[in-house]
Each structure stands twice: as structure tokens, then as C-alpha cells.
Automatic annotation (TrEMBL):
It comes from Streptomyces bauhiniae. The lineage of its organism: Bacteria, Bacillati, Actinomycetota, Actinomycetes, Kitasatosporales. Residues 13-75 form the YlxR domain. This is YlxR family protein. CDD domains: YlxR. It comes from the Bacteria. InterPro entries: YlxR, YlxR-like_sf, YlxR_dom.
Length: 98
């Protein structure tokens, strides 16, 4: 052995809101179920996924740009209410944790 340690590459994805690359673990996967964007925090739901930072700013940018419709290849605009509630709840929970 040469004494070198090999670190595994961390998969990266691009946030559809801010368009910045980040580790897959730092982003929230979004999938389309019927006509709605649904959060997939475990990353196990079937279907095409899009990634976004779990922050209201990135979510607002993605909605304004219609990025979810494009990334998920939806025929029409998607409902993001459930997604917005999830992001707001996780943001509040993170701020409450010291």
C-alpha cells in the first residue's frame, strides 16, 4: 500500500432554486405525485426527482422560475403547498434546536 487513504466521492446535485451545487445530503428531493410537488426526505419515492435546498428562499426562486415543472417534466404547473409547509416546518424546527 502507498499509505494514501481513499475518500469516497460525495454525490452532488444542483438546487433548482439557486442553481448552486451541493452535497446530495444537504438538499431535499422533490417528486411529483399527481399534480403536486411532494417532499421526499428519505429519497426513496419512485419517479423523477428534483433537488432544492430546504430553505424558503430557494423554494421561492424555484416556484417563481417554474423550475419544478421543467425539472419534473410536468405537463402543467404543480401545486407546491405541501412542499412549502414541509420546508417551513423544518426551518422552524432547526431554529428551535440550540
Amino acid at each position: 500500500m502507498s499509505g494514501r487513504t481513499h475518500t469516497r466521492a460525495c454525490p452532488e446535485r444542483t438546487c433548482v432554486g439557486c442553481r448552486k451545487r451541493a452535497a446530495k445530503n444537504d438538499l431535499l428531493r422533490i417528486v411529483m405525485i399527481e399534480d403536486a410537488c411532494v417532499p421526499d426526505p428519505r429519497g426513496t419515492l419512485p419517479g423523477r426527482g428534483a433537488y432544492v435546498h430546504p430553505a424558503p428562499v430557494c423554494l421561492d426562486q424555484a416556484v417563481r422560475r417554474r423550475a419544478f415543472t421543467r425539472a419534473l417534466r410536468a405537463p402543467r404547473a404543480l401545486d407546491t403547498n405541501a412542499l412549502r409547509r414541509y420546508v417551513e416546518q423544518t426551518t422552524v424546527a432547526e431554529q428551535a434546536t440550540p
